[in-house]
Amino acid sequence: MNQDDRTRYRTNVQAEIDGVALYRALAAIEEDENLSGIYTRMADTEERHADFWREKLRDLGEDSAPTHPGWRTRILIALGRAFGPQFILPTIASREQLDSARYREQAEARRAGMSGDESRHARL
Ligand SMILES: [Fe+2]
Fold first, then answer.
1. Three-class SS of residue 31?
2. What is the pLDDT of residues 23-74, one digit of tens each?
3. What is this structure's pTM?
4. CA 76 remoteness from chain centre
5. CA of 45 to the centre of ligand 1 (A)
6. How far is the CA of 98 from the centre of ligand 1 (A)?
7. What's the gap in Å between 1 CA and the centre of ligand 1?
């Protein structure tokens, strides 16, 4: 059971790290200051989510957690830089919907209200 939790927490940390990297990149690319500020706040939310899951991993005695965005995320960021935020926003929205659905099935995430955060991000 712990092994499963470990894998699940690691997957969650990775998803949140990907989110942080994406939103920080969007904030940097976006020229509209309002929008850029929104992306920064979304990145901050994902940062808190990542902390939450890192903490869960530590509780299981696991001190190694993912630290870098995955290759899909790095490609998305490169595409966003080349073609603008609009080009990658649909992909990001569907990712957030997936994350939200995954969190709806996880008791700890439900308790922390994360599913709502992710579906709010998807709408934005
Ligand atoms: Fe998140």
1. coil
2. 999 999 999 999 999 999 999 999 999 999 999 999 999 988 999 999 999 9
3. 0.92
4. 13
5. 6
6. 11
7. 24
